[in-house]
Give the backbone structure.
Amino acid sequence: MKKYLFIGALITLLFISSGCNLNYNEYPSFETKPAYDFYTNSLTSELSEESDFQVMLLETNYSAEIDVDANGKDTLKDFFMSLSENSFITDKLILKDLPEKPIYRLYVSTKDEKYVINIFSEDIASLHPWDGLFTEDYINMTSSPKAYNLYGLCSYIFKNR
């Protein structure tokens, strides 16, 4: 009797484990990111095509959430339009001293996608979609105009809420 129970359990285990057939070659690896500004280009094209998008600001120390108004949205669009090839950080050594938690987070919701912008300092931000497959786009904000700096925008909105 024990022999039959053992064989039945073994057959059941084989059937259950055969259903877990994932082909990991279907999914791109983190190393095959098409471009260093892949997500930035995606968001910029969505913002230029869509006028009705939502932006929410989160201050991570206080967990305070604020909806960004039309002027803030325009500044966000202008920031992304002002970026050049030199605005992106590709050297991982520069990023090793980044804090784990950003100071501010912007959640940008378009019709098709939701993006997260992490603002670590006045100089560095990162961008990725809510469910992206690749590593984040890291942005150096020192070359962008001061009026478009995301850290300054978030500080201004948070202080004047």
